[in-house]
Amino acid sequence: MAAGSRVRIRRYLVFVVVVLLVVVVLAVGFLGWDRGRDVPAVSSPPDGPWPDTARSTVLVCDARFEGTTCAVKPDRRRIEQALRELPGAVSVRLRSGRERAAEALRNDQDMSPHMAWPDQYVVEFGPGMDVVALRRRLAAIPGLSNPRVERTSFWHDKADITILVCPPKENNAGPCNDRGQVTGAERAIIEEKLRSLPGVEEIYFEPVMHRREVIARMERCPRLRADRIGAAYHLKLESGGSFAALWPDLQGLPAVFYVFDTHEPGISDSNQVEGNRNC
Q: How many CB atoms lie within 10 A of CB 200?
């Protein structure tokens, strides 16, 4: 074979290889494959552990806010001393009204940015606490109102973002008004979106029965409106991930009525059930 023919064949083979490589790259991009990231599957809730610690949130009395007025003017020093002396109290933290408003706005950007919030104390308790007795003790502290005590959520150390979907019975929460529970087709759309999000390590789907047990253990309360409890998704983020970064991507999903930071004090599974009240 002449030298010129060999050169032409070699060039042709190089051309073919380059074309094949381009086709492979385009196919990978078209199919949405991400070889650098494992796409998480949607899993059932883990078996445990079930936390035995507790958390309380309580508002500082302030005549400017409806439902937070008290006969006694708040004395912050005495209030904090009384909270620290509660049995089993591990930590006491003050959340200013401005801080609470900013966090609420991150959870619901349709909320007015000018809405004011009262100050709030968050008290963390160790294991084995009597939730009902703690509520009574908190209610007796002068200068405080609206005490709420509940067991630490099952998801507190297992997830970072909670996504609530429409329950079996309609409620008044935006997309769930005048309709029933989330459908299979809507779940497929939600899960496709969740699996495409960057920085998500685990995705859990929590069925209604498991969520009902979580709320019952948190509240230690029999007055649960079972027909108002819907299923939920929970996202565990990779190190460095944040609720704020993913919040915009979680808007507009079908049959989703609330998305919140699992770790934010004052927001939990139990108080997002319409018709449910702390015992």
A: 20
Q: Which residue has the tokens 């492979």?
A: 24
> Which range, of 53-57, 169-173, 245-249, averages the lowest pLDDT?
169-173
Q: Which residues is 150 bridged to in the sheet?
A: 55
Distance CA 237, CA 203 (A): 9
| DSSP, res 176 | G
Q: Are 211 and 168 in contact (CB under 8 A)?
A: no
CB contact set of 143 (below 8 Å; sequence gap of 6+): 60, 61, 70, 72, 73, 74, 75, 78, 79
- 8 Å CB contact between 179 and 170: yes
Q: Which helix (H) or strand (E) holds 124?
A: strand 120-125
The three-point CA angle 149-79-265 to 5° equals 35
Percent with pLDDT over 70 in the chain = 74
Question: Rounded to an integer, what distance in angstroms lies between the CA atom of residue 273 and that of residue 165?
Answer: 11
For the stretch 203-235, pLDDT in tens is: 999 999 999 889 888 876 555 666 678 899 999
Task: Report residue 181's pLDDT band, with 50, 70 and 90 as the boundaries.
Answer: confident
For the segment(s) 42-49+155-272, the CATH number from 3.40.50.150, 3.30.70.3040, 3.30.750.24, 3.40.50.620 is 3.30.70.3040
Residue 254: how many other CB atoms lie within 10 Å: 16
CB neighbours of 275 closer than 8 A, spacing ≥ 6? 225, 228
Q: What span, in angstroms and rounded, lies between the C-alpha atoms of 200 and 245?
A: 11
Q: Which of 78, 161, 162 is nearest to 121 (CA)?
A: 78
The whole-model pTM stands at: 0.76
Residues in Cβ contact with 173 at an 8 Å cutoff, skipping those fewer than 6 apart: 166, 257, 258, 274
CA separation for the pair 166, 276 (Å, rounded): 16
Please state which CATH number belongs to domain 54-151: 3.30.70.3040
